[in-house]
Fold these 3 entries.
Entry 1:
Amino acid sequence: MKQFSLLLGKEWREQARSFKLLWVPLVFIFFGALEPLTYHFLPQILESVGNLPEGAEFMLPEMTGADVYASLTGQYQTIGLLVLVLAFMGSLSGERKSGTGTLLYVRPISYAAYYLSKWTAAVLLAAASLWLGYGMAATYIVQLYEAVPGFRDVALFLLVMAAWLIFVVTLTLTASAALPTGGAAGASLGILFIGMMIDGLVGTYWTWSPWKLQGYGLMYLTGSPDSGDLAGALGVTALITFILILLGIRQARKNAAKAKV
């Protein structure tokens, strides 16, 4: 436990030195503010830059708070995932390349504590950034939109989204443990986006998967998800995440053995 605490402190200092504690949350906060404002002022924006004939009017559907959350979730599903992968793709591979990992490997450290310290710091930063982004969106949604989801529904939605982010971060860190930095980014993004494509094609028959969590979470804002499907998706996600953690620890131990040769 002492090793874990020391290594976790090292991770927080590293995140502060690389400004991840600043720029990762700021990206999520920026899009959290941009999405509700864009939809609210979209007619005025189009009128000012659209060069339309005089008298032309825009008939846009009325947006609700749930619609804005759904649109923002789509942004986080692309730009947000890219940000997280870029932020953590070098967590282990970067240390191997710089030699920091080798200095650690020759010491009698717990490889579980080494991997889990990185995992804990990354998960906390990712979850905090996500919640700050949705929190920023909420401040505009309650002022600009009439139909606003309740606090309980939003809280359950955020918890489900956090489970999805934990899966994404774990996949990225395990790829970083096994591959060079560029390969880790490519493998992580490839798996995530291929999974989304498969879900789009056969999602009706593939109800228990990590890629279903965003959709189930959004159902809390418009009604309620099927409890069986949500529980199954959470269970499968937890199992895959646990296996990825074990693989990451195993790969850290394997890298240490190579460094000692």
Entry 2:
Amino acid sequence: MKNIQLVIGTILLAIFLVFAFFGSHLPFVDASLKEETMKMSEEGKIQIPPYPPSMEHPLGSDRKGRDLLSLFVMGTGETLLLVTLIAVIRYLLAVPLGMAATISKPISAFLSGWNYVLSFIPPIFLVALLLGIPFIYFSSLLPLWFVVIISSVEVGRLATMVKNDVTYLSNQLFVKVAISTGSTKVSLFTRHIFPHLKSQLITSFVNDMARVLFLLAQLAVVNLFVDQKFTSEMDGSYSAENISLAYPMHLQLISKEIWSSYWVPLYTVLFISVLIITFLLLADGLKKYFKAKYRML
């Protein structure tokens, strides 16, 4: 088997897609995500959530008594949708900007300045800073702001990648030959540059989905959620509570749960890690596939 990465990545992605589209119909999934405030143990003792792994809850439960396995399966669709949407918007912005930078010196200079300034700020800090702005943090449109901000943060990096790839392809012999034969700019791009650029974009897109998921996990650790509600505390203050089912959002209490209910962060990290590995395997497999394809041409 020459491309084992693509095969394994495709199989893993297929499993996640089954969870996303048919998860609510699987026999081991509680589609209602029923909350359970307390239950009686076999020894006759009262138990309160989170419940440890058992026959009833194979992966345990969260603090609301919801079955963790059901939460992960039911949250797969939202996780994939969120990651894909962010990556799509990011590329829709970056690809035209990168291509424009190859023919426009002002845009190229703007892109260089943008990357220079943002190179000093890690994405997690920049996203946290923007999402922490009060009118955004307390906005009813927080999910929209969340997607737009995360999508925009690394546009400069991707646009520079596109610019460098187009510049590299434009200097290749087959492009110079096409120019010498009288190809128009439109024909030159659509018939000679874009087919090679497309494979790079597809590979980078899948790889970028892994980066987005990792960033979402970092944001959840610092209690920045894609969707939230505010609950009143006993002292009169309010706290933000996650209401999203996306995988990374279950890391909101990792600093506490790692000591008291370790199974919650453990299995959350496991599902996130497997999905990230899936994207990385697919990206590597697609890279090998496109290399073999163009080698045969």
Entry 3:
Amino acid sequence: MDHRLDTQINPAEIDWNKIWNKVNGANIKCGAYGECASIWKSKEHARAFLKNSMENPGRVHHIIESLPLSPDYKVLDIGSGPGTVAVPIAGRVDHVTAIEPSPGMADVMEEYAAESGVKNLRIVNKRWEEIDLSADLEGSYDLVVASYSLGMQDLSESIKMMCEVSSKWIYLFWISGMPSWEKGLVDLWPKLHGEDFNCSPQADIIYNILYSMGIYPNMKASRLQHQNRFPDLDFAVSQYSSVYNIQDSKQEEILRGYLNKNLIKTEDGYELPETNMCTAIWWDVG
């Protein structure tokens, strides 16, 4: 008897961008982190994010050391946050253009650049999807980077835009497996909002989108550890209230109880350890 299947799935017929949009759209609809840019309107929270990153340099170091930097390079950094990657890179290349939609993050990045003596960094306060490639950017870039900033619908169109402005390299960094920060959302979301939490799309979908576009990238996954630090429980609750979309005092008390149980008390306040898989995806546009 012939046990072969009569029908086979043709990967070329799968619309991976549509799958990304569905999974990403469900994640956005949950309302975690509010509007991706609006959560960081506060300069206080943006400064806390930068401070946390500088106290835990492993992820930033891993990203920067993964990049093929050269003193004569022009670099485009998409979704720069407070400049955790853009500012250090600027000290090693000719020019960096940073795309960051959040006003608070952009202001703190400007402060960070000034404190670091960086003068070759230009900040564009827009979403990547809203960028006018001819008016907002400075020609082509030797290297385009997007690290943990791909939470956009129609990812294939965003990648096409990256390809249009890159003369050589594109590097994307994203998650594989459920990250630690989403485990808390999965645990607590039903208690807070009465429904399950829909997780972010992962790196496998990005790879398949690229493959369907005729791009065959390199991939490397690395396990990274991170410590989120807070001076006190009230500050931790304040930080996570936007993340967990806290709307009333009852929800806040649930969040406070969860953090009080899961945060680790230290001499300087509280810590929340994380272990996540960082996946680098890169290719030569040429």
